[in-house]
C-alpha cells in the first residue's frame, strides 16, 4: 500500500519548475491524504548553524513547535541520534513535545545529505501503535529521494 505511492513521490520531486518547499509540501499532502493513519506530516530541518530544528513544509494542523532545540522531544532526540524513532504510544515517553491531544503515536526518520543529518520527516498518528518496518522503509526512501533535490 505504501509502496504504491512511490511513483507519485518521484514525480512530485521531479517537478523542477516548482520550489523545493512547494514539492516537499506536496509530498506531505500526498502522504497525509493517502495513508489513513498519517494525521500530521511535516519536515524539520537544522536551522543554519544553530543546534535546533526549524519547521519546514507540512500538512495537517498548524503547530506551535516551529523551533525545537536538539535533544528536546522526539524530533530533537533524532537530530542527535541519527536513528529512526518509532513511538507506538506517546504517553509512555518522558521526552515528548505534545502538538495535539489527539496524537497517539509518532514516527521520525532522519534525512541525510552526504552522510550528514540535516533534518527529518515527522509523522503524527491519531491511531495507537500504527507504524511498522514498512513505514520506516518507505520514509527512508522518501528522505533519500528528497536529499537529491536539496
Ligand atoms: N511531537 C514532536 C514535536 C513535533 S510535533 O509532533 C509536530 C516531538 O516530540 O518532538
Question: Could you characterize what this model shows?
Answer:
- There is one protein chain.
- The protein is of the alpha+beta class and 150 residues long.
- The chain is built from four helices and six strands.
- α1 runs antiparallel to α2 and α1 runs parallel beside α4.
- The longest helix is centred in the N-terminal third of the chain and has 15 residues, at 20-34.
- The two termini are 27 Å apart.
- Bound molecules: methionine sulfoxide.
- Residues 40, 42, 63, 65, 68, 73-76, 96-97, 99, 106, 122, 124 line the site of methionine sulfoxide (SME).
Global structural class:
alpha+beta
- Helicity, in percent? 25-40%
| Biggest sheet layout | 6 strands, antiparallel
The portion of residues forming beta strands comes to 25-35%
Gyration radius, to the nearest Å? 14 Å
Order of helices and strands: HHEEEHEEEH
Count of beta strands: 6
Number of helices: 4
Measured distance between first and last alpha carbons: 27 Å
Gross morphology: globular
Bound molecules: methionine sulfoxide
Amino acid at each position: 500500500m505504501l509502496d504504491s505511492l512511490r511513483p507519485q513521490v518521484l514525480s512530485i520531486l521531479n517537478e523542477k519548475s516548482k520550489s523545493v518547499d512547494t514539492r516537499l509540501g506536496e509530498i506531505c499532502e500526498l502522504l497525509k491524504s493517502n495513508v489513513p493513519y498519517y494525521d500530521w506530516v511535516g519536515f524539520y530541518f537544522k536551522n543554519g548553524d544553530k543546534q535546533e530544528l526549524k519547521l519546514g513544509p507540512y500538512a495537517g494542523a498548524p503547530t506551535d513547535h516551529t523551533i525545537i532545540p536538539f535533544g528536546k522531544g522526539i524530533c530533537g532526540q533524532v537530530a542527535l541520534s541519527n536513528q529512526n524513532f518509532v513511538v507506538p504510544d506517546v504517553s509512555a515517553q518522558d521526552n515528548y513535545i505534545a502538538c495535539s491531544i489527539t496524537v497517539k503515536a509518532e514516527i521520525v526518520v532522519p534525512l541525510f545529505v552526504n552522510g550528514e543529518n540535516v533534518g527529518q520527516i515527522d509523522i503524527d498518528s491519531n491511531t495507537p501503535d500504527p507504524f511498522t518496518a514498512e513505514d520506516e522503509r518507505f520514509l527512508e526512501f522518501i528522505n533519500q529521494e528528497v536529499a537529491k533535490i536539496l
